[in-house]
Specification:
about 550 residues, alpha/beta, Rossmann fold, about 15% strand
């Protein structure tokens, strides 16, 4: 989720690219690409990797691009976003234009010329599988690639109904997972062509956030995707949100057909509807869906289990994987659900309402959960509800996934320090879903405080160090040089770990004012219990098993 705290930073950050830019041309097997060079890096916007999914290609597998015409494409302008419902946040966070012709990718490369090919990082954006695009200001990564010396690619894929509607497996059915197939084709295109941009096709790291993290996890666990990447990073994946079955798509499909005035199964009618009418109908259907399967509201249109592309829920797939998994970093931020909770409940939640919400969602199992998360006798319980939701949807399933797969896990908890911003989602001075992205991509550098820049440099260094050494046995993102920061209790609310391993895996280490903003754990064993699993560089109590996490781990489907 992109929070209101970022808006002031977004507005000011636009000034970074006002200065005159220089043209740069790259030759590919499909033709030339005209991009531009800033003082920070080289940028190529809107490179097509598939034919436009329009007409008969709507709700079909993406078709690879052929040689483009004209022979040189203009990659200096931001491409249209894929169709999506009306944007309900500040317009600077909304796509400027949308079109079904949206299967494009953006490439960022460093300024320096080198004869050696550079590591490649492919980012899959989030957005609930319904919103956002690859060209947000938050993803302006020219500084990121120039300071870390990697090539970074952002990909777009079909969203919502157009990307994920699924009616069945018959010859006249919509099979679904079109957005995932778009991602696959984009990744394959990058592997085949990134050397023209100075990237190493044999040193690719997939990474994504939120819905993009779910997508990354899916590719990570899919056997026929293993030749396309060497490592992965999964950021803030809501792993408790279940992929759908075809049966679960029946009701949304019926409602959608009614809104489009189409008969069920009349694909001609579906395909002749304008994409604008489809997204309007999608919004209406979203508001009509009623179910106690509350997680369905979180992502109403997402991958379907078809046993060809998606073989089950992520935690089921990781338990049944039959091949050697690649290196992985996985983690969350400290308060993933806070912005969502304040967005749903704009007024205080009383202790009684908190209990009613818990019983409605969890039934009798809430009696055990409330032992761990008891409400206060009075006052607003939204922060407690957010803690519960953070553990349920994000943190607990992430720990379960990490125990089975990860080389490293992390928790990020550094809030934006820049003054002068307004926040309407409860995230002021908190670290909410998506808040690490501005630091990772260094996209608001000119607005950062000195401490912000320290955090930004550190996070970018760890992620890209990991990408650079994935071919080395026992790779360690902490092993490449990065200066440790001196903790100043008066000005610096941060305590950096620097290649330190502590004997006590449950040791609590904090900065001088009692706050820790980044923890990074190396998974030493995949066969030991969670509380013995991690040797901590910096740790706090999130690494211990909680009663709620126990419940989720023992029976993942209890929340259905």
């Amino acid at each position: 989720m992109i929070i209101w705290t970022l808006i002031f930073l977004l507005l000011v950050s636009l000034s970074q690219h006002i200065s005159a830019n220089r043209s740069v041309i790259v030759q590919t097997k499909y033709g030339d690409v005209l991009g531009y060079e800033t003082d920070l890096g080289r940028i190529f916007y809107g490179i097509p990797f598939a034919q436009p999914p329009i007409g008969s290609l709507r709700w079909n597998r993406p078709v690879p691009i052929s040689k483009w015409a004209p022979a040189t494409i203009n990659a200096t302008e931001i491409p249209p976003a894929c169709p999506q419902p009306a944007c309900d946040v500040h317009d600077i966070l909304c796509p400027k234009t949308t079109s079904e012709d949206c299967l494009y990718l953006n490439v960022f490369t460093p300024l320096q010329n080198t004869s050696s090919l550079l590591p490649v990082m492919i980012f899959i954006p989030g957005g609930n599988f319904q919103f956002l695009d690859a060209s947000l200001v938050i993803y302006e990564a020219d500084r990121f690639v120039n300071t870390t010396n990697v090539v970074c690619v952002f990909i777009q894929y079909r969203l919502g109904v157009l990307g994920f509607l699924a009616t069945g497996t018959g010859p006249n059915d919509l099979k679904g997972n079109y957005g995932i197939l778009d991602q696959r084709l984009a990744i394959a295109w990058i592997k085949s062509n990134i050397d023209a941009f100075g990237g190493d096709p044999n040193q690719i790291t997939l990474f994504g956030q939120s819905a993009g993290a779910q997508s990354t996890a899916l590719h990570y666990l899919t056997s026929d995707m293993q030749s396309f990447f060497q490592a992965a990073i999964i950021e803030s994946s809501p792993m408790s949100v279940p992929f759908r079955t075809y049966a679960e798509y029946i009701t949304p499909t019926v409602l959608l057909a009614e809104k489009l005035n189409c008969a069920i199964g009349d694909l001609t009618c579906f395909r002749t509807a304008s994409y604008q009418d489809i997204t309007i109908a999608q919004t209406a259907v979203n508001s009509m869906l009623t179910s106690w399967k509350v997680l369905f509201f979180f992502e109403p249109w997402l991958p379907v289990i078809d046993n060809m592309i998606v073989h089950g829920q992520l935690l089921e797939m990781v338990s049944n994987v039959s091949f050697t998994l690649k290196p992985l970093i996985i983690g969350t931020v400290t308060e993933e659900a806070l912005g969502f909770i304040y967005g749903i409940w704009s007024t205080p939640v009383s202790p009684r309402l908190y209990a009613e919400i818990g019983v409605a969602i969890f039934g009798t199992k809430f009696l055990k959960i409330i032992e761990r998360y008891p409400p206060e006798r009075s006052g607003d319980q939204r922060s407690l509800l957010a803690r519960l939701a953070t553990q349920w949807v994000f943190a607990c399933p992430t720990r379960v996934f990490a125990r089975k797969t990860a080389t490293y896990s992390y928790v990020f908890g550094y809030p934006l320090q820049t003054n002068g911003t307004m926040n309407s989602s409860g995230c002021d001075d908190h670290t909410c879903h998506g808040d690490e992205l501005v630091f990772l991509f260094e996209s608001f550098w000119v607005n950062f405080t000195d401490t912000d820049r320290y955090i930004s440099q550190t996070l970018a260094t760890y992620w890209t160090n990991y990408a650079k050494i994935i071919l080395i046995i026992n790779s360690n993102p902490l092993s490449l040089h990065h200066d440790c920061f001196q903790t100043n209790c008066k000005t610096l609310r941060y305590d950096l770990f620097c290649n330190l391993i502590y004997d006590n895996p449950n040791q609590l280490l904090q900065s001088c004012n009692g706050q820790v903003y980044l923890t990074f754990n190396k998974i030493m064993s995949q066969s030991t219990p969670i509380n013995k699993l991690e040797y901590n560089y910096r740790s706090f109590t999130y690494a211990s098993t909680t009663p709620l996490c126990d419940t989720i781990r023992m029976k993942q489907h209890i929340f259905e």
